[in-house]
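note to self — DONT lose this again. spent like an hour looking for the file last time. sequence + predicted structure for the chain T wanted, 166 res
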Amino acid sequence: MRLREFAPSPERDEQGPNEEEILHRLASQWWNGDEDPRAERALAAMGWEIGQDEGYDNGGAFVIRFGDINGNSFISWPAEELTLNEFAPSPGYGDDDWDSDVPRYLHHFANIWWNAADPKIQKYIEDQMATGGWTIRQIGEEMVELRHREGTRYRISSDEFDPDLR
């Protein structure tokens, strides 16, 4: 038997969400969205299954890696911990000193997406942006394109990204 310990660094919030935080957010989305199929698809793309955990008084949700027959990857949360803390800033949020046509919050998402070494993080950003009607994709070697379903389009050069933002 092996014991694995994990202690997040104090800079964790600046680096973006870790996999367990992403799993928790998707489980919360699934739980609060009547078993939201978008959350199921995002989890499946990351290699996880989700289901209801009836071991709690008020129910809950669990995730487990595909093919994990021993339950080593099993993570579960009670219903009380499956709340959605949503925040959608207005396009002008924090733009006092912002010198770009691209709203700062979209630029921030694109920057994290660009820097993400893990495709799961990129998929998470894509799913979060899709809830607001946005798609993101790489154009050529050094460019990101953001498109809204209503036609707005932004292109951002990789030179405009902070390489340390994750």
